[in-house]
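Slide 14.
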Amino acid sequence: MFSSLWNFVKRHKRKFIVTGAVVGGVYFLSKYAQSKIRELQEKEATEYIAQARRQFHFESNQRTCNMTVVSMLPPLREAIINQLNSESLTAILKTRPANKVDIWEDLKIMSFTRTIVAVYSTCMLVVLLRVQLNIIGGYLYLDNSVGKPPASPQATAEVQQQYLSSIQHLLGDGLTQLITVVKKSVQNSLDGVSLKQSLSLLELEQQLSWIRAEVEAGSEHPLTWYMMADNENALADQACGLTENDVLTLRLLNETRDVLDSPNFSVVLNSCLQRGFSRLLDNLAEFFRPSLDDSTSSRSPDSLFVVSLPLAKIIPIVNGQINTICSETPGHFVQDLLMNDHVKEFAAIVYESFSTPQELQK
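Slide 15: predicted structure.
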C-alpha cells in the first residue's frame, strides 16, 4: 500500500509542488491583503477622528463668534451715539426754542444718519469678526493639531490680542468716515422733504434705497475701507513693532485684507445689508399699521403702503431704532445676520482655508 502511495506521489510530484506554491502564495497574499485593509481602516479611523475634532472646533469657534459680536454691540452703539447725539437735540426742543424748525431739521438728518449707520456698522461688525475669528480659529487648530505644542505657534495670546484689536478701526476712524458719507447722502435725499410731508412705508423704503445707492455706489471708497485700514503703513502701525509676534500680527492683518477684498466677501456683506435693511423696514412697518377703529383702511399687508405718517412723526421712530439694532440682548436684527446662510458658508470656507496645512494646499 505504501509502495503504491509512494509511486502515486512520484508520478504527481510536480502537481503537488505547484499546488503547494499556489496555496502558500494565496496564504501570504491573504495575510498581506488583511494587513493593508487594517492599515486602510486605521487611516480612515484616524482621518474620521481628525475631521470630527476639526468640525467640533469649527462649531465651537462659531459660537465664540456669535458671543463676541453680541458683546461688541454696546460699544458700537455708544460710539455711534457719541458722534450722533440726537438726544441733545430733543432735550433742546423740550425748552421750546425760537429756532425750533432748524433744530427739527438737524434732528431729521441726524436720526436717519445714525440709524442707517447703525445698520451698516452692525453688518460690518458681524462679517468682519466672522472673518477674523475664523482666521484665528484656523491657526489655533493647526497649532494644536499635533500631540505636542508646536515649537513656533502662529496664534499666541499676544498675537490674537494685537490682531483682534484692529476692530477698533471700525469703532473709531472707520465709523467717523462712514458717518460723514452717510450723512451727506441723507442730506441729499431728505433736505427737500418737509417735516409736514406724509410718507408711506413704500416711500420711506424708496428714500432708504436712494441713500444706500449713493453710499455704496457713489462713494470713492469701497465699504471695506470703513472696516479696516487699507494701506501698509496703517497696518504696520496696528502691528506695533518689529518683534516676532508683531510680524505674525501684520501677516494676519494682510491676510484679512485679502479676504475682505475677495468677490465672495462682497457677496456676503451685500447679503447682510439686504437682510439688515429689510429687518429695519419690518421694524418700521409696525408703526404704519392701520388702527383698529380705522374702518376705511384694509387690514391686508398692502394697507402698510397706504398708511402715511408726517415726517415729523417718523423721525422719533427712526431715531429709536439704534436701540433695537445694537441691542446687547440679541434680537431679531442681529439673529438674522448671525444665521445668514451666506455668512455661515463663508465662515466655513475661511476656516477651511486657514486650518489646512500649507503642504496640503499645494
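Speaker note: Strands lie at 198-200, 308-310.
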